[in-house]
Amino acid sequence: MTTTSPTKKPGGARIAVQRFGTFLSGMIMPNIAAFIAWGFITMLFIPAGFFGANSPFGWHWAPVAEILGGGGDAAAINWPGAMTALTANTDGGTYQGYVGLVSVMITYLLPLLIANTGGRIVYGARGGVVATIAVMGVIVGTNIPMFLGAMIMGPLAAWITKQMDKLWDGKIRPGFEMLVNNFSAGILGMILAIVGFFAFGPVFLGISAVLGSIVAFLVQFNLLPVLSIIVEPAKVLFLNNAINHGVFTPLGIEQAANSGKSILFLIEANPGPGLGLLLAFTFFGVGAAKASAPGAIIIQFLGGIHEIYFPYALAKPMTILALIAGGASGVATNMIFQGGLAFPAAPGSIIAVTVAAIGAGPANLLVVYLSVVVAAAVTFLVAGVILRASRKRDQEAEGDSFAAAIDQTAANKGKESSALGALRTRAAGTTGSGTTETADRDVDAALGGLEGGAVATKQLNNIVFACDAGMGSSAMGASVLRNKIKKAGIDGVTVTNQAIANLDGSADLVITQNQLTDRAKAQSPDSVHVSVDNFMNSPRYDEVVEMVRAQHEAK
């Protein structure tokens, strides 16, 4: 029986930046659907949209576009009850125009959703409520979409609420808990909203202005492609979320609100570099990397899961230069021909990119496609030269280097995912069983420990897969195990997925990636814990199913 190796404690600048990026993406990613909804409404109903007055297709849908897109003359259209505001016209006069959905959603809805999500991450529903109130003050105190303010003020307000509650924890007389909780949150929210209006609003305006000036400087001197020197290596090390969600997304949405699209959405999300790298490994790679690359292309290019190509770059670090060259070429193409997206493409699939690009018109879509093709071609050519130059040496050394690169990618991310699990399985099918054994070493040890007595004394009816966000890899892992339990004919067992921060101790068995197990144990100490490397394809899931079956048959 193998033994579980000690879990390395998080530390260092890389882990700190990675955790910060994970926190930022945790605020943005759950609300991507709202961004997409806003993007579609903008794409359809603004004057330059599909159904707007200046539709590139001539599909003007009057007066619906003027009502929903905003700006329509209320006196002329006379749609009763809709919100209006004083609007300036082209000759300098004013009229009562419809507010519509576009400006209201980007000014209020999206920042408030981010604030609420950030507050919930820090302090649950109570933190989310106070965060929303506080950020409302920041929004009204500024004249630009306040995404940056929401991402900072929201979690800060929730943290202050948490510290406030500690002051009288256990000191409230029975029967007064609801009164104290509601009034304290309301009063604190009011104070933070006022402070946000007068103090934080101007500060966030200044920060946004500085970041905007940096981007304007890069655009003015045609230096945006230089960002690829930072972004592409950061992606491979999972450090890109802090840049993408902390800078590019807030500034990109502001640009899109003003001009209908933003190039910033494509600096990190362009699927071209990853496609080019995988094509290079398909034609010029060796061993497991060559065999698994074609399947990885489908997951990366169509599914938008970019992490699938990171092990290939780690297996041959020189190819990161190819990714930088391809990324810079794609950015340069969009910069020269004014390409961009109307809203964030998440995930970075060519399908999502297409939907986000077409809103700015067919010409813009062609430019974006060109940027993807150019990025893929440049990456392919540079990576091909690198791989061909070392092909003989790689064939001699080929063995477990690609498996080690997959392990390194999982370690860089801080958690396993279904994409890496599928990649690991394909690699194992090419090189033998050694990789699979490595991938599941912690599962084997954990299950061995369970067989020693934990399963016999604790009934496993509630199984939870937990990861950082509780949305992606854990959801797929839960789906796999749920199907196995269903096929085994076992009833009365629930298999769900959650973020580690949301574990409440009710789970009988918690399954996590090995680097997250210590955090899960701290959050849910009374649960049985199993560590895995491979969320998606671990053969040890069958052992879990057999243990659960044995328990239920012994009832």
What is the element layout, followed by pairings?
Blueprint: H1 12-28, H2 32-45, H3 64-68, H4 74-77, E1 84-88, E2 94-98, H5 102-140, H6 147-167, H7 177-220, H8 228-236, H9 240-259, H10 265-269, H11 272-284, H12 287-302, H13 310-315, H14 319-337, H15 350-358, H16 362-389, H17 391-397, H18 401-413, H19 418-431, H20 434-439, H21 441-457, E3 462-467, H22 473-487, E4 494-499, E5 509-513, H23 517-523, E6 528-532, H24 541-553
Parallel strand pairs: 3-4, 3-5, 5-6
Antiparallel strand pairs: 1-2
Helix pairs in contact: 1-5, 1-9, 2-5, 5-6, 5-7, 6-7, 8-14, 11-12, 11-14, 11-16, 12-19, 14-16, 15-16, 18-19, 21-24
Radius of gyration: 26 Å
Give the end-to-end Cα distance, rounded to a whole number of Å. 28 Å
Number of DSSP-assigned strands: 6
Return the average pLDDT rounded to an integer: 83
Category from helices, strands and their pairing: mainly alpha
Largest sheet data: 4 strands, parallel
Provide the low-confidence segments as ranges.
1-11, 431-456
In helices, the fraction of residues equals 55-70%
Portion in strands? 5-15%
Number of helices: 24
Outline, from the CA principal axes?
A: globular
Strand order of the largest sheet: 4-3-5-6
Oligomer: single chain
Task: Output the helix-strand order.
Answer: HHHHEEHHHHHHHHHHHHHHHHHEHEEHEH
Description:
By secondary structure, the protein is mainly alpha-helical. Among the domains are: 106-169 and 186-221, no CATH class; 257-429, no CATH class; 462-554, Rossmann fold, CATH 3.40.50. The protein has helices spanning 12-28, 32-45, 64-68, 74-77, 102-140, 147-167, 177-220, 228-236, 240-259, 265-269, 272-284, 287-302, 310-315, 319-337, 350-358, 362-389, 391-397, 401-413, 418-431, 434-439, 441-457, 473-487, 517-523, 541-553; strands spanning 84-88, 94-98, 462-467, 494-499, 509-513, 528-532. The strands form two sheets. The chain has a four-stranded parallel sheet with strand order 4-3-5-6, with helices on both faces. The chain has a two-stranded antiparallel sheet with strand order 1-2. Strand 3, helix 22 (473-487) and strand 4 form a beta-alpha-beta unit. The chain is globular and about 75 Å long. Residues 461-555 form the PTS EIIB type-2 domain. One of its GO terms (biological process) is phosphoenolpyruvate-dependent sugar phosphotransferase system. It is found in: Cell membrane.
